Amino acid sequence: MTWLNLPNLPTPLKALFAGYLLVIGVGLCMAGLQIMLTHGMADGKLGLSKDDIVYSYYGNRNDTTIESKLNGSMKDKAPAEVKLEIIKWAREGAPEDQWEPHFKGVFAQHCVMCHGNIPGIPNFNNYEDVKKVAAINEGASLQNLTRVSHIHLFGIAFIFFFMAFIFSFAVNVPLWLKTLAIAMPFAFLILDVLSWWLTKLYPGFAWLTIIGGVGYSVASTFMWVTSMYQMFILSRNGKVYGNAWERDLKSSDK
Q1: pLDDT tens digit string along 130-189?
Q2: 76 and 200 assigned to the same domain
Q3: Same structural domain, 88 and 159
Q4: Distance, CA of 24 to CA of 15 (rounded, Å)
Q5: Mean pLDDT of 66-76
Q6: Which domain holds residue 153?
């Protein structure tokens, strides 16, 4: 099967592979933007830094959770005077006798449109939920880390598997480089998720999160660009290539 390579794939298969890669490419860009607007704002400044990762997973042990959020990713969700009022109340221990007469209405006006309608985040209609986020910021909870970790591992692994499967049909890529590019995203994905748990224990491990994210981003970008180039640019030279997997098997036997 001399067509079993990216340049010489039948047009329907090229359309299938290209459609998947385009959607995944846009999805990964949106994921990066979402990270910048959530974790990237943990320290109140746009752009992902070591402090953002520390605040997200280890926490800012000098502030309450709600104060960190109001000075970070939730910075634009309420007027300055309202934020200061909530922060002061939280620092005083969020006394319950001030909830019903005043702060319940404040949260209803500025917060419950999200924190009351979106599953999985604290419900600010209830004092008990507000009290929890008014405590010292210890970062992500173990329950949240477990939930996000298994979703991340299962979901991203499927993305990398199908991207690597398409890339495995590439030609003119040394076997060692192709193998490394296919394996790297999975290795860095494990490092990324593991780093969340390590950072929860000790903030110095936050650098591993950055290394993991950069590592699988570089590897997946290389596979994406190579695959699209070979299907639509390299294929125009009219050359017929041999079976990509067969060539790799012969290279591995040498």
Answers
A1: 888 887 777 788 888 999 999 999 999 999 999 999 999 999 899 999 999 999 999 999
A2: no
A3: no
A4: 14
A5: 78
A6: 11-40+140-253
Which tokens hold the place of 169? Answer: 């049909």
Encoding tokens for residue 190?
Answer: 């494990």
Q: Which of 235, 148, 160 is nearest to 193 (CA)?
A: 148
Q: Is the separation of the CB atoms in 52 and 42 below 8 Å?
A: yes
For residues 171 and 20, give the distance between their C-alpha atoms in angstroms, rounded to a whole number: 20
The CA-atom distances, in angstroms, between 34 and each of 27, 46, 66, 155, 186 are 10, 12, 20, 16, 21
In whole angstroms, give the CA distance from residue 110 to residue 98.
Answer: 17
Summarised one tens digit per residue, pLDDT across range 84-134 is 888 888 888 888 889 888 888 888 888 888 887 877 778 888 888 888 888
Q: Three-state DSSP class for 97?
A: helix
The two three-digit tokens of residue 234, written as one number: 């390299």
List residues bridging with 64 in a β-sheet: 136
Question: What are the tens digits of pLDDT across the range 192-205?
Answer: 999 999 999 999 99
Please give the helix or strand (H or E) that residue 123 lies within, else none. none
Question: Half-sphere exposure of residue 210, counting CA atoms within 13 Å on the CB side?
Answer: 14
Q: Which of 93, 112, 133 is the last residue of a domain?
A: 133
- In the block, residue with structure tokens 């319950």: 96
In the chain, alpha helices (H)? 11-37, 50-57, 65-70, 80-91, 104-110, 127-133, 142-167, 175-201, 206-232, 244-253
Q: Is 11 exposed, middle or buried (0-12, 13-18, 19+ CB in 10 A)?
A: exposed
